[in-house]
From TrEMBL:
PANTHER family: UPF0754 MEMBRANE PROTEIN YHEB. The keyword Transmembrane applies. InterPro entries: DUF445 (IPR007383). The chain crosses the membrane at residues 348-370. It comes from the Bacteria. The keyword Transmembrane helix applies. Belongs to the UPF0754 family. It comes from Paenisporosarcina antarctica. Its main location: membrane. GO terms for cellular component: endomembrane system. Keywords: Membrane, Transmembrane, Transmembrane helix. This is DUF445 family protein.
Amino acid sequence: MAFIGALIGGYTNHLAIKMLFRPHEAKYIGKWRVPFTPGLIPKRRDELAKQLGRTVVEHLLTPETFKRRFFSNDMRKKAELWIQSQLSKHVFESHMTLQQWLSKAGIEHVPSLVEGKFDSILDEQMALIESRFASKTVKEIAPEQWQKQAEERIPEIVTYMIEKGETYFDSEEGRQTVKRLIDDFLSSKGTFGNMIQMFMGESSTIVDRVQPEIQKFLRAPGTFEILSNVIRGEWEKLKSRPLNELIGGFDLQPVLTKVKSYAKQELAVEKRLDSTLQSYWPEGAYWTAINLTPKITEFAFIQGEVKLEEMIQRLRLEEMVQEQVDSFPVERLEDLVLGISRKEFKMITVLGAVLGALIGLIQGGIVYLMNMI
C-alpha cells in the first residue's frame, strides 16, 4: 500500500504540474469541452500578460528607477565628458575648413552669396539714404552737436586764413602775385594806366607800397570780424540748402563701386572660409568645456527628468510587456518557467510520492490493526 500511495501521490503532483501548461489548447468531444483544458497558464494567458505588464510598470521600471539609473550625478558627469570629447574630436580638432563645414550642411557658393548680399544691402541703404535725406536740409540732417561744433570752429578758421594770408603776402611768391595783378590792372587801363605808372613809378615800387598795406589790412581787428561774418553767413546759407542741391552735381555711383570693391577685398570671404575653426578659435574647446557643455548637459538632464514620466507613458511599457507575453509561444513560456523552477517541481513530485507512501503506510497499519481485532 505504501508503494501504491507513493505512486499515486507522485503521479498526482506530476500531473498537476503538467496541467499548469498542458494541454496548450482546449480539447473537445463533439461540442463538449473537456474540463481543465486548456492548461491553467494558457487559459489565463491574457490575465498573466496584463498582470506582468502592470507589475513591470508599477514596481520594476518606475520613473524613480530610471532617475536613479540614468539621472545620477555620475551619469551626468559621464555625459558631459562624452559630449565634450565628441565636440573636441569632431569639431575643434577637425581639419575641415569652414567652407567644407558649410558644404556638409548643404550650403554652397558662400563667397558669391555673401558678396551678392553685401552689394544688395549697400544699394538698399544708399537708396534709402537718398530717398530719406535728399529733400532735407543740412540743418535737418546734421546733429545739433555737429552744427554747434562747426560754428565754434569759425573763429579758428578765420584766424588760420589770416595767418596763411599774412605768410603768403609776406613771401616772394606773394610779392610776385601782387606785382602781376598790378601789371595786369595797369595794362588793362591803357593810357590811364600809363599815366598812373608815370606818377607812381614802376610796378615794383607800387608793390613795395601796397604789400605793407595788405599786411596791415589782414592784421586789422575789423578784418577778422568781416571774414567771421562772411563765413558765418555762408554757413547759415549752406545749412538751409537741401542736400540734393549740394550733391546734385556729383555722380556717387563710381564712389559706391569703389566702396564695394574695397569692402570685398578687405572681407576676403573665400580666403577666410578656407581656414579651420581651430585657426579662428584656438581656445574653443576650452571655452565650450567651461561655458557651454556643462549648461547643455544640465539643461538636457533637467528636461529629461521633467519629461521622464511623460516619456514612459508614451512608451506604453505595460502594453509592450503584454504584447511580448501574448506573442510568446506557450511552449516557450513553458520552457522558460520549467527552466527556472525544474528542481522545485521535481521536489514537489517527490514530496507527493513521500506523502502518498506515508498515507499508504498509515492506511496499511489501520487495516492490519482492524484485522487483528
